[in-house]
Design goal:
single chain, four-stranded antiparallel beta sheet
Length: about 375
């Protein structure tokens, strides 16, 4: 782009749908806040990353594979699909790996929904990517409100479903609340949606729940041929920057997705890292322990400071600052930034009074609570 050319006068040169597009708003980065406030140490609890970092075992595997970066890997990464299938006890024909689950969300919409005809159904607020990618694909989005306590009303969702509904996206545990419905409710939803509609259950945070069987529909996929489950290596496996997620779905859908997916969107290092990460059960267990302990510490600390904390099955907590305090959520967010602590303000989710904090390591959690106490 030429420097003197503003975005506005570029618009007539691109697809008109791009004109009123608001981009995804990611968590602020450590480097950006260090520069903005001249800070040497910044703690990031904004993007639900792993508090233990990247597994040392996986780092070693990435180092070993670095020399082969000049090679194309095998299209569609079948070795990785095999490893994921084995890990889950599911046929690898049901697995599609993607460049993060973000790519799979986009791919599912493209493969299933017809622009200008079909619709996508989800809650409001929800993970922004469902809405952004649907719009980019020219597919109308219908949204049903969450209950005031952030739990799900599947009847509100079903009311909006009809013969145009191609896909229904549900996140569990939900982002940004951490709410997770019982698996029986999800099964009811899967059986109640119109026959042509696929139910996409985004389980990005399922690794953090106290008991997977209570919340995940994965063991029932064999009986439900309209359900897709999305999982990611970005959170519990500590590989957000490498970009790796996967879909578990009926083989016919996996085949359709692999037919149109850019063949090398999952890169060689991500593939090797993913296979190694699945084997590194010690890191998984340590991460889970750190997050569950940290979640309890933060929940107690936030409640002690007078905040309203939503029950969470994920690696983050949604909370409202004390109602009697005179500072808005946005002000608290900004004052924490000045102290070198990045959490997440949620205007982009339409939640003005709420904040979200990712579970950090022991030290980060304490420093966050101390800073918040000062700010409040
Ligand atoms: C973090 C997150 C993901 C994971 O996205 P990747 O593209 O795999 O990094 C997916 N869905 C939700 C709701 C998330 O919060």
């Amino acid at each position: 782009m030429r420097h003197n050319e503003t975005t506005a006068n570029l618009l007539h040169r691109v697809h008109p749908a791009i004109a009123d597009f608001t981009p995804y708003e990611p968590g602020k980065t450590i480097a950006a806040i260090q520069e903005q406030y001249g800070l040497s140490r910044v703690i990031k609890l904004a993007s639900n990353e792993n508090p233990l970092g990247t597994s040392a075992v996986v780092q070693e595997v990435i180092r070993r594979h670095a020399a082969y970066s000049f090679r194309y890997n095998q299209a569609g990464t079948p070795a990785l699909s095999d490893a994921i299938g084995k890990h889950l006890g599911i046929s690898s024909q049901c697995i599609v790996a993607g460049n993060g689950s973000d790519e799979l969300i986009d791919l599912l919409i493209r493969v299933k929904a017809r622009p200008g005809k079909d619709t996508v159904l989800t809650f409001c607020p929800c993970f922004a990517l469902y809405v952004l990618q649907a719009r980019l694909c020219g597919v109308t989005v219908r949204q049903a409100p969450l209950n005031p306590d952030m739990s799900f009303s599947f009847s509100a969702l079903l009311e909006q479903a009809d013969e145009t509904t191609a896909l229904c996206f549900v996140t569990t545990p939900d982002n940004p609340s951490g709410y997770s419905p019982a698996v029986t409710e999800l099964e009811y939803l899967a059986r109640s949606l119109p026959p042509q509609c696929l139910l996409v259950i985004d389980e990005a945070y399922m690794d953090f729940v106290d008991c997977v069987d209570k919340y995940s529909l994965l063991p029932r996929l064999g009986e439900l041929d309209n359900v897709i489950i999305l999982r990611t290596f970005s959170k519990m496996y500590g590989l957000a920057g490498l970009r790796l997620g996967y879909a578990v779905c009926p083989p016919w859908l996996a085949q359709a997705m692999l037919t149109v997916k850019p063949p090398f969107s999952v890169n060689h290092l991500a593939e090797a890292a993913g296979i190694a990460a699945l084997e590194d059960t010690a890191f998984f267990q340590a991460s889970k322990k750190a997050v569950l302990q940290g979640r309890a510490v933060l929940e107690k600390g936030l409640t002690g400071l007078g905040c309203t904390v939503y029950p969470s099955q994920a690696n983050f907590l949604l909370f409202c600052p004390p109602p009697e305090g005179n500072k808005s959520a946005q002000t608290i967010f900004e004052l924490l930034l000045q102290k070198g602590i990045i959490i997440r303000a949620l205007q982009s989710y339409g939640l003005e009074r709420h904040l979200r904090v990712s579970i950090g390591n022991k030290e980060e959690n304490i420093l966050f609570l101390e800073a918040l106490k000062e700010v409040l």
